[in-house]
Design a protein that fits this description.
Main location: cytoplasm
Helix content: 25-40%
Catalytic activity: UDP-N-acetyl-alpha-D-muramoyl-L-alanine + D-glutamate + ATP = UDP-N-acetyl-alpha-D-muramoyl-L-alanyl-D-glutamate + ADP + phosphate + H(+)
Largest sheet: 6 strands, parallel
Pfam family, one: MurD-like_N
Pathway: Cell wall biogenesis; peptidoglycan biosynthesis
Low-confidence stretches: none
EC number: 6.3.2.9
Shape: globular
Length: 463
């Protein structure tokens, strides 16, 4: 008789001493899940009881103990048998590493979900485009009639749903490098949209970032499939390391894989076109990068959805909030929210989505990503530039050092975000596009990119 992973885990976790690092979006459902199975939980968080608010009282009611404040990691040593860390905390944090060296098992909400989930998982990662690609895959599968679950870095934490998921269901997850860094199990179908420098404030270097991304396909079992962007140098090279790699390319004709032919997304096998899948003109959401996102989603769902469903999705899928999201038109000026663009590469893709030069609002938290190449992009694609946040001076310096900078680009720097948005509105002329596409993370002024994007939309709607 095959052992049920969930039943086995329920027996294993009962009365075990468990440390949960971080009381955030994914770990609160995890704590509930573990508490219901009789684990003895200590929750560690840098916030105070007052800052946790009602969550503290709820978890205390479940029997959870707490270690809070600046020394929240100090009491892990020697006490925990299992440690579940939030993705934002590194595995080699000294207190965690010491506990692991002493015999504690290190895991996370997503790693546990992968161990227990009875359904096949489709996982998507990449420096840019992963949220839209994940959402497209989920939308296609839903339209095809599957019962689907969406989670990981988007959607809702899935661990609490794991007992409801059936083997015939489909699970689609977006995975960040933080989540992948310590994962030892890979999804059945993996997608790597692209890899460019990102999160270098958290990873030790670019090589470590790349290694983290590789975990999405490194442990695939027989029958698994991994989808790679041929046009990206890193992902093209990674394909050779996969058990079963599939390419997609917007810029090149492929002998095998998914590419563009006569304006259509097509599939080639052995040098011959075998499927003419989607007219790229039918894709509702703008930008050539979204053609790539469709290609990745089509490759991931091969054999699962029909071409008719793909075409239906292209015409009906309106995009994801904060990703070149149209906000309003005012006085002939169109305002777009692209707050998700937290890297120069992502903002470059956003700028290239418009035929005209735009009024760009950029800047934010410094992730230690160089802006050298981005400066030239700004000079060629931006009409007027409004900078705000910690990186304002760095972006300005990169723009002025660009070989195509001729001194004519108007650059404005403001400390206050509302003032920056208002300045962009004031300098825009009828027919212009104003876009918030920061090329940086939001943590200098906001909790996350959603909060930043929502504030932008609120300000614009108040004009």
């Amino acid at each position: 008789m095959i052992e049920n992973p969930i039943e086995s885990f329920n027996q294993k976790i009962k009365k075990r001493r468990v440390a949960v690092i971080g009381i955030g979006v994914s770990n609160v459902p995890l704590i509930r899940f573990l508490a219901e199975r009789g684990a003895k939980i200590t929750a560690h968080d840098r916030r105070t009881r007052g800052q946790l608010g009602s969550i503290y009282d709820e978890l205390r009611g479940l029997g959870v103990e707490f270690v809070l404040g600046g020394s929240y990691l100090d009491e892990i040593r020697g006490d925990a048998e299992m440690i579940f860390k939030t993705p934002g905390v590194r595995f080699d944090e000294p207190a965690i590493a010491e506990a692991v060296a002493g015999g504690a098992v290190l895991s996370s909400e997503m790693e546990l979900f992968f161990e227990l989930c009875p359904a096949p998982i489709i996982g998507v990662t990449g420096s840019d485009g992963k949220t839209t690609t994940t959402s497209l895959i989920y939308d296609m599968l839903k339209r095809a009639g599957y019962k689907c679950y969406l989670g990981g870095n988007i959607g809702s934490p899935l661990i609490y749903d794991v007992e409801s998921i059936k083997p015939d269901d489909k699970v689609v997850v977006e995975l960040s490098s933080f989540q992948l860094h310590t994962m030892k199990k890979s999804p059945h179908i993996a997608v790597v949209t692209n890899v460019t420098p990102n999160h270098l404030d958290w990873h030790k270097d670019y090589d470590e970032y790349i290694e983290a991304k590789k975990a999405i396909f490194a442990n695939q079992s027989e029958g698994g499939r991994a989808v790679f962007n041929y046009d990206n140098d890193i992902t093209r090279s990674l394909c050779a390391e996969a058990r079963c790699g599939v390419y997609f390319s917007r810029q090149n004709k492929l002998t095998d894989g998914y590419c563009i032919n006569d304006g259509y997304i097509v599939q080639f096998k052995n040098g011959k076109e075998v499927r003419r899948i989607l007219d790229t003109r039918d894709i509702y959401i703008p930008g050539v990068h979204n053609i790539e996102n469709y290609m990745a989603a089509i490759a991931a769902t091969e054999g699962l959805v029909s071409d008719e469903i793909i075409r239906e999705t292209a015409k009906g899928f309106v995009g994801v909030p904060h990703r070149i999201e149209f906000v309003r038109e005012l006085g002939g000026v169109k305002f777009y929210n692209d707050s998700i663009a937290s890297s120069p590469a992502r903002t470059t893709a956003g700028l290239n989505s418009f035929e005209q030069k735009v009024v760009l609002i950029a800047g934010g938290y410094d992730k230690k990503i160089p802006f050298d190449d981005f400066g030239a992009v700004v000079c060629s694609r931006v009409k007027k530039l409004v900078l705000c946040g910690f990186t304002a001076d760095k972006i300005e310096a990169a723009v002025k050092a660009a070989p195509n900078f001729d001194g004519s680009l108007e650059i404005y720097k403001l400390d206050d975000f509302r003032e920056a948005v208002t300045k962009a509105k004031d300098i825009a002329e009828p027919g212009d596009v104003v876009i918030l596409s920061p090329a940086c993370a939001s943590f200098d002024k906001f909790k996350n990119f959603e909060e930043r994007g929502n504030m932008f939309k609120q300000i614009v709607k108040e004009f």
